[in-house]
Amino acid sequence: MPTSDAAPPFAKHARADVILRSCDNVQFHVTKHTLSIASPVFNDMFTLNAPLNDAAADELCDGLPVVRMSEDSTTLDVLLRWCYPVARPPLTSLDNTRCLLAATHKLDIHAFDDTIQDALQTHLMRDPMGMLGVVIPPRLSEYTRRAVLALPLSTVNSLKIEGLTDSTLITLI
What we know:
Structural class: alpha/beta
Oligomer: single chain
Strand content: 5-15%
Number of domains: 2
CATH superfamily of the largest domain: Potassium Channel Kv1.1, Chain A
Number of helices: 9
Distance between the termini: 45 Å
CATH class of the largest domain: Alpha Beta
Radius of gyration: 19 Å
């Protein structure tokens, strides 16, 4: 599958020193410095992983090391717009909130926890069923419990949500 460049500000630019490639082959040209400040995972990756610090990287594109990410381009775009000093996508959609939540959990980014919690609270009030489909990291699991408790018991009894076992439901209730 051919690669494509992300939209600005993550398109090719002179200050980029690494490329994050999404699982759907979109390339985000970013700076190690910014990502290292935002995430201890990126910081460790860039300081401990020698190939990303020199020209001996397994894969280079336009002379820059490429980091293959498991996230899709939508998730990376949302995450990077929250890490960079650019306009941030609002967390009014559950999809954007879900993307940011999953990525910040994986990359150990806590700077946005309060904002994510506020968005989850709003989504919980609007759509408790939708909230149950969100995989909540342990630090935010209270929202999953609240989502279950906000539902009528007849609904809870009929839930068949992927990744939410009967024992998990009982524990949450």
